Amino acid sequence: MRTSESRCFPPFALATALALLLATPTVAHAKPKGPWAQMVTDHSAEVRVEPSPGAGPVTVRIAPDGHPELAKEQQVPRSAVGTVLVAPFEGLSPATSYAVTVTSDGVVASSGFVTAPSASSQAPVKFLVYGDNRTDAVAHRAIVAGMGREASDFLVHTGDYVDVGGQPGYWDTFFSIEEPLIGRKALIGTVGNHELFESGGGEWLSYFGASGSQAPKGPDGAPLLDFTARWGSIRFFMLNGFVGWKSGPDREWLEAELAKADAEGDLSYRIVVTHHSPYSSGLHGNNDLFAAAGLPELLVRHKVDLVVAGHDHSYERGFTGGLRWIVSGGGGAPVYGRAGHADGSQKFESTQHFLAVTADRERLTYVAKRIDGSIVERCGIVRGVAGWLCGEALLAAAAPAAGSSTPALVPVAGSAAPATTTTATPPVGAVDKSTVGGGSRCGCAVGDVPASPGLLLPIVVMLGVLRRRSKTAEDAGNRQRRAAYRHPWSQRASVGGSAVGWHPRSRPPPPSKER
């Protein structure tokens, strides 16, 4: 849990890297985590926290920044729910920063979040997209550092937070790295196939899934691993990419939610987030489950503007059959090269990266940034224009009309889409020095690298040796997991009695088989 003294995070240091590389991610009991905010709307939010095993009652207090007299407080008995405690709050103000304080057995932890704007708001919305963080803590931390320098209201995750969803140690590592991000802003994420390893997704559901009335359920009352969320004029649909979508509760739920969104006249964008993209040129290729169910056509009929996914550890952008799509799986896991050419693919790069997105009522633009802060490309959606606009074409189309109060987009050096596909991957841990400190609440650099050339060489050599040892230990652990892996291809895992379907062609292999 974050202590009240840890609101500022020191520069990236050798000791931190060594601790991450030497840590064994498999422990018997999960470490304390949080607090963090989930299911945030313009008037409500949940504060989630995972206290120490055996901890007493937990007191959760939230207050608008600068207004402690407006604080709301509630106490959650430790025995009332499972490991992760959930404190829901209603009656919040839109577009407002809230400070969170959690107290248990004299231990105080703090965090914060921003509520969504009202549905009628005209203010631009900013969010960050990333995914596939698993297996490389150093690269994951560098991605988090880069994202921490970007102005944003919330986070969107495309899945594969950890290597093995059923092992607590991997979640310990994830939360320790992500704390600078999820300790400040809400995360809206979808479930990945690795969250289903040695688990039916139950851990992911407790950490980042929907709960209460916002959690869709099957006919037996058990939760599905899908949900929707609204932020301003954007409606997100978070879909489990590993179930059969031809029929069943997931399909029925999605059709009902798409119909509801059709009736939301104040929506500007409908965005689907799923782990396995309908289309991909990477190692995993197209999502056969989606294709068999005609899901892309369903999404087009309901005016879905964009599908964002991960699974393939690369960046790709395309436009197929009237559907815009992005693969963004460059959040830290080893990158994948191109394995094919998906229909409609317009840009592919094998690189670790994240997306910085800005959306207003007329346009949604994003910048894909590599791990060193350099730009892959700048593209966007302009209302009334089919497909993608990138680079100078985007800037020209998005320029305001004469007399308009909407500011024009500002060109970014290097933002035009390169003419050729590249596969270069910048060194892990590289940092854009010109922006250090720009996104930290306390003004300190997050993830900075020591600049002394005298220290860099031995550090790099030592990190290489330690990472090789870590990889050897990881491979041994993967072999053990593979030997213990007992899901036949036709088996259905469960989350609290909710069936999670495996499909012969889409079922993820054991961790040792997936690159």
Overall average pLDDT:
78
As a percent range, the share of helical residues equals 10-25%
Number of continuous helical runs:
9
Shape: globular
Low-confidence stretches at least 5 residues in length (pLDDT < 50)? Answer: 1-28, 401-463, 465-515
Spatial extent as radius of gyration: 22 Å
Strand order of the largest sheet: 10-9-8-18-19-20-21
Number of DSSP E strands: 23
Distance between the termini: 32 Å
Q: Could you say which structural class the secondary elements and strand pairing correspond to?
A: alpha+beta
Proportion of beta-strand residues: 25-35%
Main pleated-sheet profile: 7 strands, mixed
Task: Give me some keywords for this one.
single chain, 515 residues, alpha+beta, seven-stranded mixed beta sheet, 9 helices, 23 strands, globular, disordered N terminus, disordered C terminus
What's the gist of this structure?
This protein is α+β, with helices and mostly antiparallel strands and 515 residues long. The chain has helices spanning 14-22, 137-148, 168-182, 202-208, 249-262, 288-292, 295-301, 391-398, 453-484, and strands at residues 33-38, 45-50, 58-64, 72-76, 85-89, 97-104, 107-114, 125-130, 154-157, 187-189, 227-231, 234-239, 269-276, 306-310, 315-320, 323-328, 345-349, 353-359, 363-370, 375-382, 389-390, 493-495, 498-500.
Task: Write structural notes for this entry.
The chain is an alpha+beta fold and 515 residues long. 21% of the residues lie in helices and 25% in strands. The chain contains 9 helices and 23 strands. The protein has a 7-stranded mixed beta sheet with strand order 10-9-8-18-19-20-21, with helices on one face. A 7-stranded mixed beta sheet has the order 11-12-13-14-16-15-17. It has a 4-stranded antiparallel beta sheet with strand order 4-3-6-7, with no helix packed on it. β3 (58-64) and β4 form a beta hairpin. α1 (14-22) runs parallel beside α9 and α2 runs parallel beside α3.
